[in-house]
Structure formats: C-alpha cells, structure tokens
Automatic annotation (TrEMBL):
The species this protein was found in: Aurantiacibacter atlanticus
Name of the protein this chain belongs to: FAD-dependent pyridine nucleotide-disulfide oxidoreductase
GO MF, one annotated term: oxidoreductase activity
Domain FAD-dependent oxidoreductase 2 FAD-binding: 4-36
SUPFAM superfamilies: FAD/NAD(P)-binding domain
InterPro entries registered for this protein in UniProt: FAD-dep_OxRdtase_2_FAD-bd, FAD/NAD-bd_sf, Geranylgeranyl_reductase
Key words of the record: Flavoprotein, Oxidoreductase
Pfam families (UniProt xref): FAD_binding_2
Length: 371
C-alpha cells in the first residue's frame, strides 16, 4: 500500500506516534533495525511515573487513543531507604507509578503497543535500517549516548510484591538503587549517574544491601543493563522531520523516569502531522517546562553533595510522596531563575570521567556504542 507516514524506530515513542496516526486513517510504516520491538530490554520492570502531571498517566494514554494493553500495575506505596540505611514508608494518595515490563515478553510495554499498531493496520518491518527518508517521516531511533546507566539482575523469587528504593551514593553515585517485585519475578538495579566503570561493584553492593534489608532470595538471576540520554534539545526537527523520544533527548533529567515524556513526544509529533501544526511549538509548550524543571533539579541534586542529597531524599520519602514529587517537578519561579545557570553547567556535571572506553565493561561500552 502507499505509505503516508514513515516512522523510524519501534520504541514507545515511535509506536505511539504510529497508533495515533493510524487511528486517524493514515497509512503508516514503522521500520526497526533490530529483530524485535524492545530489543534493548530484557523483561526488566520499570516505572511509568505518575507524579509529573495532575492527570493520571493511564488516563492520559487513553485520551490519546492508546489503550494500556500491557502490564501496568499501580504502585501506591513502597519502602525507601536513606543513606544511613533508615527505612521509610512511602505513601501516596494515588498511584506513584505504574510498574511496566520492558522488552519482548507478551505483557511488555513494547509488545502491547506493537499489537495495537498492527491491529490498526500499521506495517512494521524489523531488521530494516532506514538511512534516508522521503515524504513525511518521524524519527524515533533511541538514545545516542549514555548519561545514565542502570545495571542489575532480573530473577525469580517467592518474595511478596513490593517496591523499594535506596538513595545512597555508595550504592549508586548521584543516583539510586531499586528493587521491584511482582508476581514471582523481580528486578534489582543500581541506577548510576557517575562511576560507570565500577558498575559491577555497585551492582554487587546493591544486591547485598537489598538482601540484607528485605530478606529477598533471588533465583535464576540474569544480568541486565540499560542506558539513557539526558539533554535538552534546542530543536527537535531533523530535515523537516519531527524527532521524538530519546533520539531527541526527551528524558527526565532528575531521575531517568522518561517514558512519559517519550510517549508524549510521539503523540505530539503525530498531531503536528494530522493538524498540519508546528511540532516545535507543541513540544515546547507541553514538554519543555517540565524538562527545564528536571534539569534544574538534577543540577541542584548533583551540587548539594552527599549530605544534601541525604536530607532531600529523606524529605521526599515522608508522607504523600507523590505530592512531594509533583511539587518538585512542577515549574516554579525559583526553577525559572536557576535554569540559565543550570543549563550552562549541568551538561558538564553529567560527564563521567571513569568511563574512558578503555577496558570498560559498563552497559554503554559493551552495548550502547554499537548502536
């Protein structure tokens, strides 16, 4: 069939764009150079955050015409650990995030979006690399560098369902460690903003920490890893084509919870085509304010030192965690005032001197540089 729109990349941003376009009657072809959707992931659990906006993220997806036909388990409560090992009960008056699976499994986010796109008549071509595009296209090829990496284990367990997070530079420099358990399966990882070359060391410390604090027993452990690109795009158009997802830099600079931004950028690109609007105006209006806030938050988090991070994270883990996070992620006058300085300096703070690409086995050096 004749194709109206070509989408390059079958990740959440690209598939979301394809779904919105197909629902509007456009003929869409998606080209993915890997063998399957979600090839960067391994069945690991992640969080689709629900705190950066007043609207529930699943309701937002449905309003866009995207059915959450994938595992999306609401997590309203959890346990947090501060840098001193103190335990805090995190509570919320609404889901803090939705636990989702990434990768090629039938319940995964990618496979759920792929099924919807296929049911709507979208052509999806795997092992298909597009070097040049003609006509209308959306570019969604994924991250091009690593500013944040997550490394750990996926495993089987008899442990009860739960969500745990630890803020301790000894486990995850400038980042956090997490443990997610759902229906007999778990994901444990160290999320690093620095110290990439010592990735294995931090993963081992994280595993020992959660085993001690929760008593979890991990069976059939399999290593996994992922990476994310943090930057603020000056423009999100290349050759007149909208650029979406992490290829454009749509990510959460504060904590790497960028799925919501990524999907939203794909939807906005689709609307710009359907309505013959300006994609640059759309993402700047709807995504840029929260992205600027995230950059200021990350700049401050990096700059206040380990003691400052200990104090801030303890405050965040007190009552109504989602409300505190929503306030943190909401644009404000202080955020606006600090943004010029944060933008100037935050890029340098992300450069990790430990990862020199020499005898380095971090996720980015082993896998990301090949993309």
């Amino acid at each position: 069939m004749d194709i109206d729109v070509t989408v390059v990349g079958a990740g959440p941003a690209g598939l979301s764009a394809a779904i919105v376009l197909a629902r509007a009657g456009r003929k869409v072809a998606v080209h993915e150079w890997h063998a399957r959707a979600g090839s960067r992931f391994h069945g690991d659990f992640q969080g689709l955050e629900n705190w950066s906006s007043d609207e529930d993220v699943l309701a937002e997806l449905q309003a866009w015409g995207i059915t959450p036909d994938f595992l999306a388990y609401p997590v309203q409560d959890g346990i947090g650990f501060d840098a001193a090992g103190g335990r805090h009960a995190m509570t919320s008056d609404r889901p803090l995030f939705y636990l989702v699976e990434r990768g090629g499994g039938p319940q995964s986010l990618e496979q759920g979006l792929l099924r919807q796109a296929s049911d709507l008549g979208v052509e999806v071509h795997f092992n298909s690399r597009i070097d040049k595009t003609s006509g209308t296209a959306i570019l969604a090829a994924g991250p091009r560098r690593a500013d944040i990496i997550a490394s750990g284990y996926i495993f089987d367990t008899d442990h009860e369902n739960g969500a745990y997070i630890a803020f301790d530079d000894r486990l995850a420099p400038r980042g956090y460690a997490y443990l997610l358990v759902h229906e007999g399966r778990g994901t444990m990882a160290s999320c690093l903003f620095s110290g990439f070359k010592q990735q294995r060391h931090y993963v081992n410390l994280t595993a020992a920490f959660f085993q001690q604090k929760t008593g979890i027993v991990m069976r059939n452990k399999r290593s996994f890893g992922g990476f994310g690109n943090l930057r603020l795009p000056r423009r999100a158009v290349q050759g007149h084509h909208p650029v979406v997802g992490e290829q454009a830099g749509f990510q959460d600079a504060m904590a790497g919870f960028g799925l919501r931004f990524s999907i939203a950028s794909g939807v906005l690109a689709a609307h710009s085509i359907l309505e013959e609007g300006d994609y640059e105006d759309l993402w700047r209006q709807q995504l840029l304010p929260r992205m600027k806030t995230g950059i200021v938050n990350r700049f401050l988090f990096n700059g206040i030192g380990s003691r400052g991070r200990h104090w801030v994270t303890r405050k965040l883990m007190q009552s109504n965690t989602s409300g505190r996070l929503h306030k943190l992620y909401s644009p404000s006058a202080p955020h606006t005032a600090l943004f010029p300085l944060a933008r100037q300096r935050f890029r340098a703070s992300l450069r990790d001197p430990s990862c020199d690409h020499r005898d380095c086995t971090c996720v980015w050096c082993e896998h990301g540089t090949k993309t």
